[in-house]
Amino acid sequence: MSTLRNKVQLIGNLGNDPEIINLESGSTLAKFSIATNESYKNKSGEKVTDTQWHNVVAWGATAKLIENYLTKGKEVAIEGKLTSRSYDTKDGEKRFVTEVVCNEIMMLGKH
Q1: Assigned domain for 44 exists
Q2: Using CB atoms within 10 A of its CB, is residue 63 exposed (0-12), middle (13-18) or buried (19+)?
Q3: Which residues pair with 19 in a beta bridge?
Q4: Cα 14 to chain center, whole Å?
Q5: Which of 13, 25, 56, 108 is deepest in the core (most CB within 10 A)?
Q6: Which domain holds residue 84?
Q7: GO MF terms on file (predicted)?
Q8: In sequence order, which residues have a C-beta less than 8 Å from that of residue 52 and are 6 or more positions away?
Q9: CB count, 10 Å around CB of 72?
Q10: 67 vs 31, 32, 75, 107, CA distance in Å?
């Protein structure tokens, strides 16, 4: 059960082309967002679609795969863990970021 403590699985579409960063250490980082949609009927019986956006980062071989094959709009399934971090802006404001660190990705749909 310990593997279930911090596990995220999402299926969605890329909201933008991935940002690929090649670090001086030789590591590759991919940053992108995916949208997940959930549909339901409201009290009036009208169909409503709720879209949630998720920030995703991937490292190493997974990042290279993303760089080579994924673009805006592509449907993917990802698995990873949820992380939070903070940083200070140039103006001294503290900002908080929550993102999914992806360790597995599967391309869905037509590629």
Answers
A1: no
A2: buried
A3: 31
A4: 8
A5: 56
A6: 2-37+49-107
A7: single-stranded DNA binding
A8: 35, 36, 37, 38
A9: 12
A10: 10, 11, 15, 13
> Dihedral through CA 97, CA 99, CA 68, CA 108, nearest 10?
-140
Gap between the Cα atoms of 20 and 17, Å rounded: 9
Residue 62 has phi, psi (to 5 degrees) of: -65, -40
pLDDT tens for 87-107 read 999 999 999 999 999 999 999
What pLDDT does residue 111 have?
A: 56
**Residue 79 · residue 7 · CB < 8 Å:** yes
| Cβ atoms of 35 and 45 closer than 8 Å | no
Beta-sheet pairing, 47-59 with 19-22? unpaired
What would the pLDDT profile of 2-56 be if each residue is shown by its tens digit?
A: 567 899 999 999 999 999 999 999 999 999 999 999 999 999 999 999 999 999 9
Task: Give 1's pLDDT tier (boundaries 50, 70, 90).
Answer: low
Domain count, the chain: 1
Provide the whole-model pTM: 0.83
